Amino acid sequence: MKLTDADNAADGIFFPALEQNMMGAVLINENDEVMFFNPAAEKLWGYKREEVIGNNIDMLIPRDLRPAHPEYIRHNREGGKARVEGMSRELQLEKKDGSKIWTRFALSKVSAEGKVYYLALVRDASVEMAQKEQTRQLIIAVDHLDRPVIVLDPERHIVQCNRAFTEMFGYCISEASGMQPDTLLNIPEFPADNRIRLQQLLWKTARDQDEFLLLTRTGEKIWIKASISPVYDVLAHLQNLVMTFSDITEERQIRQLEGNILAAMCSSPPFHEMGEIICRNIESVLNESHVSLFALRNGMPIHWASSSHSAEVQNAQSWSATIRQRDGAPAGILQIKNLVRSRNQRLYRTRGRYQPAYGRAGAGTGKKPSAY
Questions:
Q1: With 60 as the cut, is the pLDDT of residue 4 above it?
Q2: What range(s) does the PAC domain occupy (predicted)?
Q3: pTM for this one?
């Protein structure tokens, strides 16, 4: 076949190909008049071909863009570079009935026989734009969560992190992107299985969680609970993994406090030593604090035990709780003077968890077991 024959054949195929194209095809001539409008374009705009052919392209342009559109075309026809020529972009198309629909269109400039034509190929992008908006809103929501969150790809590389993650660990998305959590995060050598357990959690294919000791970027040691949740598509292919973190440093300290007190009680120390053990352990959890215990005798508080710090803590707030016998009768007072910090609030909120420990503190002293 000669080149001229091929050209003629191509010319004969071109318009039928556009006519049957699944994308809307609109061709305008040198006078900005529509000279081709295929069935897919009819479906998108809601106009019949007969209503459009021969009319100015303005009737297909969204109302808010019409005032500026003639100048854009004139500028391009005179040799200027079109802003959207040769590229694909989103446009909210206005249909015949006034409703709007998101589309993606590509504009091409065609020169033939000294004349300039424009071909626009348009397709419905409603679903992907809705998904894009949903994703945008989800990112905003996640970014404003108090709990740190990261999103991983199937290879466990970080693709997104929220503001809380940056605040907790000190890494922004530009630093974290493309890194695996076990490489990015500062993992101390103790506990010895820290890193291995984190790696095992990362490669789970079902929801799971574990606790780890980590170092922030400033060198602060924190205990965190990390949870991982895989995200699968409709074909059960892994798409992403969502990992969330909770600072459980206070909770771990409280557990340690409970364990120390229970261990001390098992050794059956004298009553006054038990009080000192309680005070010292609370002091180890609450820095810059002074802890005192008082027993009630005839309704009057009598000093039982105190922590090692001086009785005066500068700029401190005082907090106290009544120690009660199991029948509810008051038996003593726990008093803490402390620089109130957010990390200390958890201990105050969970003080009820120590009731059994304080209840057994009076064992072997002739006193009834008590609890606050």
A1: no
A2: 208-260
A3: 0.58
